[in-house]
């Protein structure tokens, strides 16, 4: 275990009590906590519907399925993301078409998106990488011009704002994930938000084995339908989220502002301590948007290569400090190369960036001493690299 882990959930007494209350109740799935959690997420993002599911990946899968994307279709997306964003396209049998990223914001380079659109393009899947929201409005405009849906993967940007709009408000639907390293956690969990009634209904059916959404067996509607619980309208999945997880999610959402503020403070501590390191490129904070910090990812300057970056990460880990290589390029993952024939050099900016990034420990409860220790250790590792230079 690391002395300073890469991430750590922030669970207060309120969350513990909320979970205990569920365990003492008679309903562990499909009850009032689910609808409350969904309503809170819909309100936060200014949407009509929230659909709670078992993970962010499940949320992406359902949205792609609900948009009837399938074999022969293409979806434009970024190679620089957590792999789940592109995998959801593969689940549907469609082809991810990668477009290179913009080196400052690390999001899709919007100036290159339009030329990748063909008659097979069925959607654009944009990701707010590390909480950076840049370009989401432009992606929405491009999608609008071409009459294709935008899917907003907001899994790393909950609570952020972009040009006056909350993250989650862009595109036909947006998705969030609540794994334990995200801004809020339910252990495992996810959410779809949308204004589209039909898409919401399809997602609700598919998360519950394709059955009509009458989880609440106390209602008259449910009782009058009798056997409706076993009527399966279409192929579905079990992507439900338990009441235990939903209760945790509600309590976490109630503390969202407080937790985002704490993350912002840790980010500014890092910026202060690392500002003078010549060999580092710090996260782009010039954007006018309200940033929701997911992680704190620095980049070595281009005198460094992947081998040196990996050695710096290993060195930090040997000092019990969590560090990670967020993200290796998706198009270069073996099964993507094998299936779609992507080669090195296909996405030069994403490839160059991804060889030099280092995610540093980042969580609400980090104090100045810990940030100082991380910064100091990073500096020692960089000095070591300079000695190793020929
Ligand atoms: C975390 C994350 C997801 C969803 O992950 P789950 O672990 O399935 O909840 C999807 N996309 C991105 C960009 C993420 O960071």
Structure summary, number of beta strands: 12
Q: How many helices? A: 13
Ligand types? pyridoxal-5'-phosphate
CATH architecture of the largest domain: 3-Layer(aba) Sandwich
Name the overall outline. Answer: globular
Q: Might you state the CATH topology name of the largest domain?
A: Aspartate Aminotransferase, domain 2
Spatial strand sequence of the major β-sheet: 1-9-8-5-4-2-3
Kindly report how far apart the N and C termini lie.
34 Å
* Strand residue percentage: 5-15%
Largest sheet: 7 strands, mixed
Could you state the CATH homologous superfamily of the largest domain?
Type I PLP-dependent aspartate aminotransferase-like (Major domain)
Number of domains: 2
CATH class of the largest domain: Alpha Beta
Overall mean confidence score, pLDDT: 94
List keywords for this structure.
globular; binds pyridoxal-5'-phosphate; Aspartate Aminotransferase, domain 1; three-stranded antiparallel β-sheet; Aspartate Aminotransferase, domain 2; seven-stranded mixed β-sheet
Can you tell me about this structure?
Helix 9 packs parallel to helix 13. The two termini are 34 Å apart. The protein has helices spanning 13-24, 32-45, 56-66, 84-91, 136-145, 197-207, 220-225, 243-254, 256-274, 306-318, 334-340, 348-354, 368-388; strands at 49-53, 74-77, 95-98, 121-127, 150-153, 161-162, 165-166, 173-177, 190-194, 280-281, 296-300, 357-360. With 390 residues, it is an alpha/beta fold. It has 13 helices and 12 strands. The protein folds into 2 domains: 13-253, Aspartate Aminotransferase, domain 2 (3-Layer(aba) Sandwich), CATH 3.40.640; 256-388, Aspartate Aminotransferase, domain 1. The structure holds pyridoxal-5'-phosphate (PLP). Pyridoxal-5'-phosphate is lined by residues 55-57, 81-82, 84-85, 127, 153, 155-156, 177, 179, 190.
């Amino acid at each position: 275990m690391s002395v300073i882990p890469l991430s750590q959930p922030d669970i207060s007494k309120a969350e513990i009590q909320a979970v205990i209350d569920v365990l003492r109740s008679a309903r562990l799935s499909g009850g009032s906590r689910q609808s409350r959690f969904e309503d809170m997420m819909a309100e936060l993002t200014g949407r009509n519907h929230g659909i709670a599911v078992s993970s962010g990946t499940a949320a992406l899968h359902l949205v792609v399925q609900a948009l009837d994307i399938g074999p022969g279709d293409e979806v434009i997306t970024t190679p620089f993301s957590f792999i789940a964003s592109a995998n959801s396209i593969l689940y549907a049998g469609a082809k991810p078409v990668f477009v290179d990223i913009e080196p400052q914001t690390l999001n899709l380079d919007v100036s290159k998106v339009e030329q990748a659109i063909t008659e097979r393009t069925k959607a654009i899947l944009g990701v707010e990488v590390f909480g950076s929201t840049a370009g989401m409005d432009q992606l929405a405009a491009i999608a609008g011009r071409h009459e294709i849906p935008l899917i907003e993967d907001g899994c790393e940007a909950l609570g952020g704002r972009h040009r006056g709009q909350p993250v989650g408000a862009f595109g036909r639907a947006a998705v969030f994930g609540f794994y334990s390293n995200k801004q809020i956690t339910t252990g495992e969990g996810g959410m779809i938000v949308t204004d589209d009634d039909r898409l919401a209904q399809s997602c609700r059916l598919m998360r519950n084995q394709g059955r009509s959404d009458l989880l609440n067996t106390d209602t008259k509607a449910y009782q009058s339908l009798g056997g409706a619980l076993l009527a399966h309208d279409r192929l579905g999945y079990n992507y439900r989220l338990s009441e235990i997880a939903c209760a945790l999610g509600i309590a976490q959402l109630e503390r969202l502002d407080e937790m985002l503020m704490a993350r912002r403070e840790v980010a500014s501590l890092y910026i202060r301590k690392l500002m003078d390191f010549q060999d580092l490129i710090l996260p782009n904070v010039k954007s006018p948007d309200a940033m929701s910090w997911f992680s704190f990812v620095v980049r070595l300057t281009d005198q460094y290569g992947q081998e040196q970056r990996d050695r710096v990460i290993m060195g930090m880990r040997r000092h019990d400090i969590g560090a990670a290589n967020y993200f290796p390029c998706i198009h270069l993952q073996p099964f993507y190369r094998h299936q779609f024939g992507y080669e090195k050099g296909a996405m030069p900016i994403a490839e160059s960036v991804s060889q030099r990034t280092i995610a540093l420990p980042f969580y609400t409860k980090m104090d100045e001493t810990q940030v100082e220790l991380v910064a100091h250790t990073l500096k020692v590792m960089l000095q070591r690299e300079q000695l190793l230079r020929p």
